[in-house]
Structures are given as C-alpha cells and as structure tokens.
Amino acid sequence: MQLVVFLLDEQRYGLKLPVVQRVIRSAEVTGLPSAPEIVMGIINLAGKVVPVLNIRRRFHLPEKELGLDDQFIIAKTGRRTVALLVDSVSSVEVSSDGLVHASDILPRMDYIDGVATLGDGMILIHDLDKFLSLEEERTLDEAMPRV
Would the CA dihedral through 125, 129, 133, 136 be positive or negative? Predict the structure, then answer.
C-alpha cells in the first residue's frame, strides 16, 4: 500500500495514495461565510472552487499562520475535491504487514482508518470520507453556492 505522508507539528499522518490527486504550494485562501469551523475557506484550482480544510482544528492542534512553506494536499472524497492544509508532504510505501486497522485499536476511532507501524514510528492513516460529519457536509454544501 502506498501512502502520502504529511506532517502537522512533527506528527506524521497519512492518506491512501488513490485519494490524493496532487500536492501544491499553499496559496491565498478566501474566507467562506457560513462554512463549518474546519473549513478555512476556498481556493481557485484551475477554475474550480475547492474548499480548504484546516485539519489542525479537527485534531485540536495549535493554530498557525499560513506560511510560504505550507502545502495543500488536493484529495478526492466520495463527495467532493478538498484541499488539506499541511506543514509538509512526503511519500512512503508501507507493506500490509505494518498496518493495524482502527477497529483493532479502539472501536469508533473517528477519521482514522488505521495505523502504519514503521521502524521509526507510527503514521495515523485517515479516511477522508469520514473526515467531515454529515452536518459539516450539509453546511458546506449550503455555503458553497454563495461563492
């Protein structure tokens, strides 16, 4: 299995490679009134309006200003394309031997699909389809046409 691994405050997180479309440098984000708290705003990506998710808010990490070295992971959920604001990105290949499914760790681990164990630590693997709650999806749907 291949993962796109990203850092937030030196902690490693991962997304399965098939959901990732590309990684780009951060850009100016336009605020989006009435969007869920996790939505930082929107960007114009080749003529398409894409919501930017500030996943620091989801993980209760300290806020930080958008920097020139930050990156956006452009990824596809089951419902939409999103941009995830991250500190940095790399990729790594993980064999299925090093994977532990979330249900084997704790039941009902929201947003987490599993954990990859490597020689130098662990990577939390996220399920983007569970990242936004149904209420957040509905609120985002309502906010997007106002753009």
Answer: positive
DSSP state of 60: T
SS3 content of the chain, % helix, strand, coil (to 5): 20, 45, 35
- C-alpha to C-alpha distance for 20 and 4, rounded to whole angstroms: 8
Does residue 27 surpass a pLDDT of 60? yes
Enclosing domain of residue 56: 2-146
> pTM for this structure?
0.85
- Smallest CA-to-CA distance from 143 within 7, 23, 34 is with 34
pLDDT in tens, 86-125: 999 987 777 666 767 656 666 666 667 778 877 778 888 8
- For 1-147, list the strands marked E by DSSP: 2-8, 11-16, 20-25, 39-45, 48-53, 71-76, 81-86, 88-93, 99-101, 112-118, 121-126
- Number of domains observed in the structure of the chain: 1
Strand partners, 75: 20, 82
| CATH code (residue 24) | 2.40.50.180
